[in-house]
Amino acid sequence: MPTPAPAPAPAVDEEKLNAFLGQVVTDLGATFNAVLIQIGDALGLYRAMGDGAPVTPAELAGRTGTDERYLREWLSAQAAGGYVTYDPDSGRFALPPEQAMAFGDPDSPVYMAGGFDIAASVIKDRDKIIEAFRTGEGLGWHEHHHELFSGTERFFRPGYKANLVDAWLPALDGVEEKLRAGARVADVGCGHGASTILMAEAYPNSEFVGFDYHQESVGAARTAAEHAGVADRVSFEQAAAKEYPGAGYDLVTMFDCLHDMGDPVGALRHVLESLGGDGTAMLVEPFAGDRLEDNLNPVGRLFYGASTTICTPGSRDQEVGLALGAQAGEARLRAVAGEAGFSRFRRATETPFNLVLEARP
């Protein structure tokens, strides 16, 4: 039988090709800039420019104890990307106030530097992730580069600080009143303890315990609680989500971690068992629509990228390995909570980056 003739190659639209190549060049430049952002963050360059005053490379070098020639190249790259401005008449560079909020102030609600630590960590873990793709096996959270752990705290803490006490907890039915009067709270998957400590600072009459299976993160959380002056009402223990101790909790929280769990149904079933009769579970998850096409946008791109390299491999490393992914969406999460035994479930509030979900017995 004669071999069929190959199908003709599809015609290339040169305008579309050039537009796509422009996008690729932008992405490649952004990849290099991720390292430059880490350099600027580590050396305090953004903070040194935070007053907005224009500086020459030599002046910035004098402020930061760094080399002028390297700074000239770094500033030029930052100007090309729009991260700083450049005045050709004076030869000076400046950090606009909007960019300073994103990179110069760790307490800003839109501080983004930690996200680049997360991105750098998965690049360093590339070979492990490639092997997971080949084998279908998982890659545990604890197996990642250490920048992931600190970067996650730095990335999520500003959003928690801006929203948790002022918006998210008040959106839950009757929870804030309990916290002010004195409640028992378990923060499951607490990581370095940012969420736990923020709640403890706001509600001194309540008692908080953070649980995480990652021992190094538990140690970092204990140190952070001491530094924050809340160690008298906050404790941290190493425990998995399906095994943490205690019962009769008024509130159990899970911040950006349920989708990472191998058995989220089992984890929520344990949460339900640990709650008091009128207790509440608060689930903070990455913002997502219920359909793939709802998430084909810049936020979805970011979360799908993290999900591919961190969340899905992490779930696959655990029992069941359900692999919800960071773009599970409210409907899927509702189904998981229902299977675990929760009878009431609602979206309490949201931000462009977060779904805040309330589950009750």
List the domain count as a whole number: 3
Strands, total number: 9
Q: How far is it from the N-terminal to the C-terminal residue, by CA? A: 67 Å
Q: Could you list the spans in which at least 5 consecutive residues all have pLDDT below 50? A: none
List the total number of helices.
Answer: 14
Structural class: alpha/beta
The neighbouring-strand order within the major sheet is 5-4-3-6-7-9-8
SSE run: HHHHEEHHHHHEHEHEEHEHHEE
CATH homologous superfamily caption of the largest domain: Vaccinia Virus protein VP39
Helix content: 40-55%
CATH architecture of the largest domain: 3-Layer(aba) Sandwich
Query: Could you tell me the strand content as a percent range?
Result: 15-25%
Largest sheet: 7 strands, mixed
Question: What does this protein structure show overall?
Answer:
- The protein has 361 residues and is α/β, with parallel strands linked by helices.
- The protein folds into three domains: 21-103, Arc Repressor Mutant, subunit A (Orthogonal Bundle); 106-161, no CATH class; 174-360, Rossmann fold (3-Layer(aba) Sandwich).
- It is 49% helix and 15% strand.
- The chain contains 14 helices and nine strands.
- The protein has helices at 14-42, 45-48, 57-64, 68-80, 97-103, 113-124, 126-135, 147-168, 175-181, 194-202, 215-228, 264-274, 298-316, 330-340; strands spanning 85-87, 92-94, 184-188, 207-212, 234-238, 249-255, 275-286, 344-350, 354-360.
- A seven-stranded mixed sheet has the order 5-4-3-6-7-9-8, sandwiched between helices. The protein has a two-stranded antiparallel sheet with strand order 1-2.
- Strand 3 (184-188), helix 10 and strand 4 form a beta-alpha-beta unit.
- Helix 6 runs antiparallel to helix 8 (147-168) and helix 12 (264-274) packs across helix 14.
- The radius of gyration is 23 Å and the shape is globular.
- The termini are far apart.
- The model has no long low-confidence stretch (mean pLDDT 96).
